[in-house]
Specification:
Blueprint: H1 4-35, E1 44-49, E2 74-83, E3 87-88, H2 107-118, E4 122-129, E5 133-134, H3 139-153, E6 170-175, H4 183-195, E7 203-206, H5 218-223, E8 228-232, H6 249-258, E9 266-272, H7 285-298, E10 302-308, H8 310-313, H9 319-329, E11 362-367, E12 370-382, E13 385-394, E14 404-408, E15 414-417, H10 426-429, E16 435-439, E17 450-458, E18 473-475
Parallel strand pairs: 1-2, 1-10, 2-4, 2-5, 4-6, 6-7, 7-8, 8-9, 9-10
Antiparallel strand pairs: 2-3, 11-12, 12-13, 13-17, 14-16, 14-18, 15-17
Helix pairs in contact: 3-4, 7-9
Length: about 475
Amino acid sequence: MVTLNSILLLTTALASSFLHFALANINGTAENRASGFNVKANSNLILYWGQNSRGQQDSQKPLSEYCKDGTVDAFTLAFMNGFPNIIMNLANGCETMYSGTNILNCPHVGEDIKTCQAAGKAILLSLGGASGAYGFSSDSQGAEFADTLWNMFFKGNTTYRPFGDAVLDGIDIDIEGGSSVGYAGMINRLHELFTADPSKKYYLTAAPQCPYPDSYMGTALNSAWFDMVFVQFYNNYCGLNNYGTFFNFDEWDTWAKTKSLNKDVKVYIGAPASQSSAGSGYVSADQLVNIATSVRNKYSSFGGVMAWDTSTAFSNGNWATQVSSSLKSGNGSSNGSTASGNMRFAQFAPNRIDPPPTVYSQWRIHSGDVDATISVLELNAANGNFNVLCKVKTNNQPILPHWKLWFTLPDGQQLTSAPMGINAPLSQSGPKSGNITISADPTDSSSHMAVYFSLAGTYQGKTFQFPDPATIGFSPK
């Protein structure tokens, strides 16, 4: 028998349950909105901001200008390109430094960071880059520097805080020179500091080049905690332009599932955002979306797309919005296009056996305190003429303005084109043979971690030969 009292009790219970359900959903929605960035997603677009690679005064806008909609999920500030003796560079994003230091003083960037975080974006700081003076002598030095980072950019205290009271969401490492020592120690210590603060979610990321294992970060990647890895699929033979041949996301997926300490680590396709953003590897937004869709369907470690950089992503038509919307909708382009392009071979780990060794060469130079790698990035040799693109990268110190490279050409070879500084200008002295010395451009007064140059000439016989490694020498200063 149903009484009025029982009906009232049931009604009250239902109302209470409904109210509890509604409040739970409201609170859950607010919590999700507050947490913002979803590290477990497979549809994120992450851009590097700070270097203004397009190079025009107005091509890099303030960070907060890019946080007004949902196009980009996270930004990585580039770079701290000197450490442990700190040097920072954000191009036109901030040029003011604390007096007597190379440490940027950018309270306006700090306000932008907080604006972006309020919009649900994660903001990280990248250490390293293609040029700079950085590296550690031991894991303990790396761990000690982690405390410095905590004090400068997170919830510690120190005299110099480049972004004021803004608290970053994480640290990225993009190590492209020097030694591999110390980075595991730094990342592991940061992981300790981050996990000790349950009030906020922090992220640790790395941006290795696509050849596996990475020459500079391989040790850290296997022995330290990472939440995301932004693999640079450009400027190398395994780039996006070689999708279907040497493109090697599968190797990074295997690393994520078998070698990484974090078995839920997300692996991103790193892409140039325009033709001018990289030496090779650029593909159109349509091509990139198709590749990303295929990779996402095949590999559970896929996290999204990382692009270099913000200034070119938003200057290349609707590249950024097209890639972002396609990732978030789960759709590829409809024209069925695929990436294509000429193969370009670049520095890769010594234990790789492909591509075939007849189309490249690489030498490691050890002499005194010099440790350098010389790579042939491109080779065209036919009908007695050759053209090569070379890269010299030091593994333990910066290349200073007075560097020199020397080698002996094989018999029958002559150089007809080379950088200024080779013995004497070729236009004045004619072709060169025998012993060759290439030196720095006398107008370049900066330091580098790598230098590039092209050589052209003639050879006799049916095949082109590289110099005898015993004749190759290099001095970075």
